[in-house]
Amino acid sequence: MKMKQKLSIGLYVLFVGSTLWGQQLDLSTCLRMAETANVQIRSAQLDVAINESQRAAYLSSRMPTLNFSADYRYNAVIPGQVVPAQFFGGAPGTFAEVKFGVPYVLSNTVQLNQILFNSQVNYGLAALQINSEIVKIKKDMTVHEVKYQVANTYFILQGMYEQLKFIQSNIAYTNQILKNMDLMVGQGLLVQTEADKMRINRLNLENTQANLSATKSQLEEILKILIGADLKASLQLENDQLVQQSLLVDKSAANLFQIQLLEQQKRMAEEEAKGIKMAYLPNVNLYGIYQYNYNMNPETDFRTGIDGAFIGLRIDWNLFDGLDKHHKAAVNALKQEQLAAQTALVQQQLQQQIEQNKRMVDVKAGALELAKEQLKLAEAVHQNANLKFAEGLIGTNDLLQAQTGLEQAQTGVVAAYVALRQAELDYLKSNGNIK
Q1: Rounded Cα gap, residues 163 and 365, in angstroms
Q2: Any domain includes 216
Q3: H or E segment and range at residue 278
Q4: Which end of the chain is more exposed for a tag (fewer CB within 10 A), N or C?
């Protein structure tokens, strides 16, 4: 039965995995996969879980504690004590030696302790609560950074896919031209040098294609790691058109993690100041003890048990600590002042960065439109040059010049597209809004 269950689970996982990699992944799917499978995000989530466990463990310090101790002792030499002999009817001014106890003593003690008031325990609980918020913010920052890396890699790959399509098209065009040129060389209508010029251009295209393909494979491996995918599985990304809708859906939304982190650090410093003041108060503990001692003297066959119990209130109060708390309070005040200054500075820097990134998005959007217009013109020039070359009105150099212009325009469009998406990502990253 267990074998059938394992087999069913294995087939299910295999089916789901093949279904996942059989489809093309869009950006939102990649981001969701990263949230659940990325190692950095998983580590940050474990930090949150560890912090919660530490807080739960610290909370247990407020619970009562119960301890048991036992002491089984053999007195090889029973200790004695000198007392006035008058206690036993002796002459005044004389002393007698008295031995207390028996050879065998079995002592058992049960002690119950309960904290009634401890300033540092209360401060520690508040600090752990604030630290829990800090760890969660750091986790959110890690998730945000990973999403940025995933999206950035995704769009670079999209640009490479588009560039490789352009190169493949250019190679196919060059092969067709070379086929015609070789026929013309065979008929004596064209010198071999002209055909070789076109072959050099094809070699350059093939070299660029090989380099881009290698870089594409490396980036695909990086993306697989980022989204927690199997490195051996093939990666298929959904085609992202150059005119795709902008990533900026809500430009007003903001989630400034750095400010949130500083605010929590300010809260921690304020709580620390409270803890320093509370340390001037005494600590109060309630305790109860039950003891049972069993005494034996085998020589006289003496055996007896004596028990006792009491409840107490213990107060510990540090009346003077050498001005230690005074100096700690001074350091804490400076720390709070420093955090306030840092918060104001970071707010200014973030606001400036957000505005700058927002302007850069507009600049890159304009650059993309310009690059697309240049591509249209380059395609028209190349088409015209191709017709004139077929009619024998221009030479190979002019055709190659038009071809080079087209290739540069194609590269410019791809670069402008990637630059725009990266500018949008930078803007979203600066205001913490990558979804």
Answers
A1: 19
A2: yes
A3: helix 257-278
A4: N
The pTM (predicted TM-score) of the whole model is 0.79
Q: Starting from the edge strand earliest in sequence, which strands make up the sheet with 104-117, in order?
A: 65-74, 104-117, 283-297, 302-316
Q: What is the pLDDT of residue 392?
A: 84
282 φ/ψ angles, rounded to the nearest 5 degrees: -75, 160
Q: Which of 401, 374, 404 is nearest to 389 (CA)?
A: 401
Q: What's the CA dihedral at 111, 114, 118, 123 to 10 degrees?
A: 120
Rounded Cα distance, 84 and 89, in Å: 10
Q: Is residue 10 part of a domain?
A: no
**107 and 224 both lie in a single domain:** no
Same domain, 307 and 330: no
- Looking at the structure, do residues 365 and 421 belong to the same domain, yes or no? yes
Please report, as a single letter, which amino acid is at residue 63: M
Q: What is the pLDDT of residues 229-250, one digit of tens each?
A: 888 888 888 876 654 556 665 5
- The alpha carbon of residue 336 and the mean position of all alpha carbons in its chain are separated, in whole angstroms, by 27
Task: Tell me the mean pLDDT in the region 330-344.
Answer: 95
Are residues 182 and 299 part of one domain?
no
Tokens 């100041």 correspond to: 273
Residue 32 falls inside a structural domain: yes
Among 294, 316, 338, the domain boundary falls at 316
Amino acid 187 reads Q
Which of 383, 376, 386, 385 has the alpha carbon at shortest distance from 412? 376
Q: Which residues pair with 99 in a beta bridge?
A: 80
Contact 181, 400 (CB under 8 A): no
The total of structural domains in the chain comes to 2
Enumerate the β-bridge partners of residue 407.
none
How far apart CA 170 and CA 128 sit, in angstroms, is 63
305 and 179 within one domain: no
pLDDT at 2: 41
d(CA 193, CA 139): 63
Q: What percent of the chain has pLDDT over 90?
A: 60
Pick from 422, 127, 428, 123: nearest CA to 249: 428
Q: Where are the beta strands (DSSP E) in 29-99?
A: 65-74, 80-84, 95-99
Residues 89 and 215 in one domain: no
Domain extent at residue 289: 66-117+283-316
pLDDT bracket for residue 360 (50, 70, 90): very high
Domain C-terminal end among 268, 294, 316? 316
Within a domain: 186: yes
Residue 203 sits in the same domain as residue 172: yes
- Let me know the angle formed at the C-alpha of 432 by 427 and 435, rounded to the nearest 5 degrees: 95
Question: In the chain, count of helices (H) and strands (E)?
Answer: 8, 6
